[in-house]
Amino acid sequence: MTDLRGGIEAETRFASKATLPLTVAEAIARALRELGAVHACGVSGGAQALLWAALSKHLDVLHFRHEGGAAFAATEAYFASGRPAVVFTTTGPGITNALTGVLAARTEGAKVVLVSAYASAPHRGRGGIQETSGYTMPTSALFEAGAWFDDAAVLETPDQLPQVLRRLAAGLRRPGGYVAHLSVPNAVQGASMTRPLPRLADAHFDGSGAASTRPGVNRAAVARCVELLSEEPFAIWAGFGARAAGRELRALAERAGAPVMCSPRAKGLFPEDHPLFVGLTGMGGHTPAVVAHMRGEHAPRRVLVLGTRLGEPTSFWSQDLVPAGGFVHVDVDPMVPGVAYPQAETYAVQAEAGDFLSALLEAWPARTAPSAPRLTRPHPALPALDGASRVRPDALMAAIQRAVVDGSDAVVLAESGNSFTWATHCLRFTEPNRYRVSTNLGSMGHAATGVVGAAFGRNGRAVAIVGDGSMLMNSGEVSTAVKRGLPATWIVLNDGRYNMCHQGMAALGMSGLADTAFPPSDFAMLGRAMGARGVRVEREDALEAALAEAVSSPGPFVLDVLIDADRPAPSQGRNEGLRAAQVARHESAGISFPVLGA
Q: Are 540 and 391 in contact (CB under 8 A)?
């Protein structure tokens, strides 16, 4: 009788638990899943225990070693999967630690929702542990829409949640990026929902992260674009915002005989081996080839700009890239066209790039395309491997091209700094969405952690090309990859210094005036200490075997490459601007730090 009675009591307890009303934490987790989120990245904490548990039930949760790393990883999980990603943090430093990664998500155009904890009302102002409230933190910046977030709210009662979820749904469905912050006081997380949740229709995310709601195409504007572009030679300048429109971009280029140049973030959007490919513009790009076309015998009358704001990393605001007839600039944000080159004639069109190109192709005149100009191949000739005592960075890129780009389907991320310029300038991609760089915020450590998010988001190989300085910032996330056995690979350009800064100071004639060096680090040993596989390469003739092992490794792999630190990086135009700023240093030139290069 006793055993039976105990079984009945257990069954009763289970039934009562099953009929408990939905808690706020559970409702948030379910809603995020319904809105398309699959991946959650964060760091735990007692103040958000209920949220953490609920997210773990409904999403694929990956526990990171630092909240900033979690936010970088969520950004790259979004770009790898095309689905919104979640970042979770506890109170106080949990939130502030995440902010650099959150800002990267905002400036990169990702769709990310930060879910954090907040001090409960009775405890505010009383000096609680890691208190988060208006007494301790700038609420107008962190918990309201503004510079950090497109939308933000502190959920003070369960009755607020339906309205907040409707706002999240609208934001996640709109074109472009969307970063929101939902902070939930400890006591509210476990409170019962008193109102039914709104029905949140599927967002229908495609591979670019674009959702179902976007502006239509103005047919009159398309007709005007046909007039402006079809009568005289034109070129196309494609950016990251057009990443879902590669097929339409190629169709227009081939039909119109229009050469194509791409921003660094759009690398691979147009095949880099195509006869109509001019080259990459901006930082790490192919400046001589691009300028030769824009100012040569077959210079275009106009340039069709798609999905890029033509900021400094993409254009250096160079007048050599302004065509005689001006720009036709297409962007989902109506505030973008005309900003980078205010003096140039610009016909602005608000539209999503793929929709616009489809409409333009439909309206394009049915006639033989003009003969395309013969274009010089923009990529440098990469050296053959030899037995040098230090690996030349361009020789390393040649080996990465063969083993990683051509020999696998891996996504490649390049860290800000010289890693960015070497990879962007030397590597060649023939398909879109395999190369990721950050040219907006450009935070060090982004790719060193983002590679974990990319492997997590795509459930496949991701490779980060990083400097040793960036790796030292966020190397702890190797442990995160080890925890899940993720196929993330770090290729570390190990030169024992912040080499972008070192070479930049040399370009200004100030060598030796600032300390850019740090003690030697063995990253292969560091990776092995955290449970990853690790190999150190000191000679070029050992590169191919090491890269083959890295690409075939089923789990995390750290490849530590001792590089020739004195080989100048291909900055392509940065030094000229800095030297001009140095001459007129009391003027507000707005030029950021360069690297040394041709």
A: yes
Do 193 and 153 meet the contact criterion of CB atoms below 8 Å apart?
Answer: no
Residue with tokens 């902070």: 183
Give the rounded distance of the alpha carbon of 121 from its chain centre.
Answer: 37
Q: Is 92 helix (H, G, I), strand (E, B) or coil?
A: coil
387-425: pLDDT as tens digits: 877 899 999 999 999 999 999 999 999 999 999 999 999
Within 10 angstroms of residue 136's Cβ, the number of other Cβ atoms is: 16
Please indicate whether residue 451 or residue 10 has the higher confidence score (pLDDT): 451
User: Dihedral (C-alpha) 153, 335, 439, 203: value to the nearest 10 degrees?
Assistant: 50
For residue 503, what are its two tokens? 């070479």
Ramachandran region of residue 447, left (φ > 0), alpha (ψ -120 to 50) or beta?
A: alpha
Structure pTM? 0.90
CA distances from 332 to 91, 226, 350, 510 (A): 35, 19, 5, 43
Long-range contacts of 246-253 (CB under 8 A, 24+ apart): 246/270, 246/431, 246/432, 248/353, 248/354, 248/357, 248/358, 248/361, 249/306, 249/353, 249/357, 250/274, 251/357, 251/361, 252/357, 252/360, 252/361, 252/364
Q: What is the CA radius of gyration of the chain?
A: 26
Do residues 210 and 181 lie in contact, with contact meaning Cβ atoms separated by under 8 Å?
no
The more confidently predicted of residues 97 and 506 is 97
CA dist 430 and 424 (Å) reads 13
Can you tell me the mean pLDDT for 23-39? 96
Task: Show the tokens assigned to 294.
Answer: 């824009």
| Dist. CA 435–CA 239, nearest whole Å | 13
List domains and CATH numbers for the chain: 20-189 (3.40.50.970), 219-363 (3.40.50.1220), 393-583 (3.40.50.970)
Contact 114, 71 (CB under 8 A): yes
Q: What is the pLDDT of residues 165-202, one digit of tens each?
A: 999 999 999 888 999 999 999 999 999 998 888 888 65
Residues 6+ apart with CB under 8 A from 188: 24, 120, 155, 156, 157, 158
